[in-house]
Amino acid sequence: MEIKILGSGCKKCHQLEKNVKDTVEKLQITADIEHVTDIEKIIGYGVMSTPALVVDNKVVSTGKILKDKELVGIFGSRE
Length: 79
What we know:
CATH class: Alpha Beta
CATH architecture: 3-Layer(aba) Sandwich
CATH topology: Glutaredoxin
Oligomer: single chain
Shape: globular
Order of helices and strands: EHEHEEH
Strand order of the largest sheet: 2-1-3-4
CATH superfamily: Glutaredoxin
Protein backbone atom coordinates (compact mmCIF):
# COMPACT_ATOMS: atom_id res chain seq x y z
CA MET A 1 0.00 0.00 0.00
CA GLU A 2 1.24 3.49 -0.82
CA ILE A 3 0.17 6.26 1.57
CA LYS A 4 0.87 9.96 1.17
CA ILE A 5 0.14 12.72 3.63
CA LEU A 6 -0.19 16.01 1.77
CA GLY A 7 0.52 19.21 3.65
CA SER A 8 2.95 22.03 4.21
CA GLY A 9 4.32 20.61 7.44
CA CYS A 10 1.88 22.27 9.83
CA LYS A 11 0.88 20.81 13.18
CA LYS A 12 -2.26 19.20 11.73
CA CYS A 13 -0.25 17.55 8.95
CA HIS A 14 2.21 16.09 11.44
CA GLN A 15 -0.65 14.82 13.60
CA LEU A 16 -2.26 13.08 10.63
CA GLU A 17 1.11 11.52 9.75
CA LYS A 18 1.50 10.24 13.33
CA ASN A 19 -2.04 8.83 13.34
CA VAL A 20 -1.42 7.10 9.99
CA LYS A 21 1.86 5.55 11.17
CA ASP A 22 0.29 4.38 14.44
CA THR A 23 -2.66 2.79 12.64
CA VAL A 24 -0.48 1.10 10.01
CA GLU A 25 1.63 -0.37 12.80
CA LYS A 26 -1.44 -1.45 14.78
CA LEU A 27 -2.94 -3.21 11.73
CA GLN A 28 0.47 -4.63 10.76
CA ILE A 29 0.10 -3.36 7.21
CA THR A 30 3.05 -3.12 4.87
CA ALA A 31 2.96 0.42 3.54
CA ASP A 32 5.20 3.06 2.06
CA ILE A 33 4.39 6.33 3.82
CA GLU A 34 5.48 9.67 2.39
CA HIS A 35 4.83 13.22 3.60
CA VAL A 36 4.50 15.47 0.54
CA THR A 37 5.15 19.16 1.24
CA ASP A 38 5.71 20.41 -2.33
CA ILE A 39 2.74 22.68 -3.09
CA GLU A 40 2.85 21.90 -6.82
CA LYS A 41 2.57 18.16 -6.12
CA ILE A 42 -0.26 18.78 -3.65
CA ILE A 43 -2.17 20.86 -6.21
CA GLY A 44 -1.52 18.09 -8.74
CA TYR A 45 -3.80 15.88 -6.67
CA GLY A 46 -6.53 18.54 -6.86
CA VAL A 47 -6.26 19.16 -3.13
CA MET A 48 -7.08 22.66 -1.90
CA SER A 49 -7.36 21.90 1.82
CA THR A 50 -4.70 20.16 3.88
CA PRO A 51 -3.91 17.91 5.53
CA ALA A 52 -4.95 15.40 2.91
CA LEU A 53 -4.55 11.65 2.73
CA VAL A 54 -3.82 9.74 -0.47
CA VAL A 55 -3.97 5.94 -0.52
CA ASP A 56 -2.76 4.13 -3.63
CA ASN A 57 -2.97 7.40 -5.62
CA LYS A 58 -6.56 8.11 -4.60
CA VAL A 59 -7.39 11.12 -2.41
CA VAL A 60 -9.46 9.71 0.46
CA SER A 61 -9.60 12.71 2.81
CA THR A 62 -8.93 16.45 2.79
CA GLY A 63 -8.92 19.16 5.40
CA LYS A 64 -9.11 17.07 8.56
CA ILE A 65 -7.09 14.95 10.95
CA LEU A 66 -8.42 11.43 10.69
CA LYS A 67 -8.62 9.45 13.90
CA ASP A 68 -7.67 5.80 14.42
CA LYS A 69 -11.20 4.46 13.84
CA GLU A 70 -11.54 6.34 10.53
CA LEU A 71 -8.11 5.18 9.37
CA VAL A 72 -8.86 1.56 10.26
CA GLY A 73 -11.94 1.82 8.03
CA ILE A 74 -9.91 3.22 5.14
CA PHE A 75 -6.93 0.88 5.42
CA GLY A 76 -8.95 -2.22 6.34
CA SER A 77 -10.97 -1.95 3.15
CA ARG A 78 -7.78 -1.88 1.03
CA GLU A 79 -5.91 -4.92 2.36
